[in-house]
Amino acid sequence: MIEGIIKDRKVAGNDYLLTIELSREMDKSEPGQFVMLKLGIEPILAKPFSILDHSGSRLRLYIKQVGRLTTLLKEAPIGSKVLVRGPYGVPYINKINLSKKYILVGGGTGAAPLMYFAKKYPHLVFDQIYGFSNSEIRTLFPGYPINISKETGKHTVDIAKEIYENNKDKNLGIIACGPKGMLKKIASIFGNVAYISLEENMGCGIGVCEGCPVKTKDGIKFVCKDGPLFNASEVIWEW
Q1: Could you give the 3-state DSSP secondary structure of residue 1?
Q2: pTM over 0.85
Q3: 76 is in which domain, residue-wise?
Q4: Whether residue 52 is found in the same domain as residue 120
Q5: What is the total count of domains within the chain?
Q6: Domain of 103: which CATH number?
Q7: How far apart are alpha carbons 116 and 31 in whole angstroms?
Q8: The dihedral of CA 151, 157, 163, 166: what is its sign?
Q9: What pLDDT, in 10s, does the model give residues 14-27?
Q10: 20 vs 214: CA distance, rounded Å
Q11: I want to staple 30 with a disulfide (CB 3.0 to 4.6 A). Which of 52, 91, 167, 181 is the partner?
Q12: What is the pLDDT of residues 99-149, one digit of tens each?
């Protein structure tokens, strides 16, 4: 693991951006990859977090407060020690059809890897839409196309569908990351046009613990080492 410190934190309700300054440069990361992170000497297993941005020894994560570790990371003083390992997972760029442009569809913390993708590969992005329940999120992501369903009355997936149907002649694909319900809806609407990035709890991040299985048409795979990105048509949801 690489030691680091919490350098900065921006908070909007239960959501926050965490900037970590590592003691040395982390291996080069790509959009879609994640790190395993834990807080200092806390006896809690490291948890996976998608990379929002990374350059050299500086790492940025978008986190939602949902449990003990994410609460501790939100409340820890600036300068607190963290431990990081990774990056892990197969980069999105290794999985997608590079002849297409993509509509990026994010929900909640699933926005993080997509925003990283849009920053690094803007020539592959046709449009973006990110859905959140917390309107304060705009303070964390100014300038991004954000959908708050209770304000617009539209589900983020329905907006993505409108964008796609209005541009069917442009050889577009979908890359989506977010809650499982959202991804199932993406899969049912777009089929093999879409790639879905799965979020799962995991213990090791490298496929040893087998704690993040996903059933596919080709058998059992693991989100950490085979994903997180899969073509929507290959995932079997019920098993």
Answers
A1: coil
A2: yes
A3: 2-88
A4: no
A5: 2
A6: 3.40.50.80
A7: 5
A8: negative
A9: 999 999 999 999 99
A10: 31
A11: 91
A12: 999 999 999 999 999 999 999 999 999 999 999 998 999 999 999 999 998
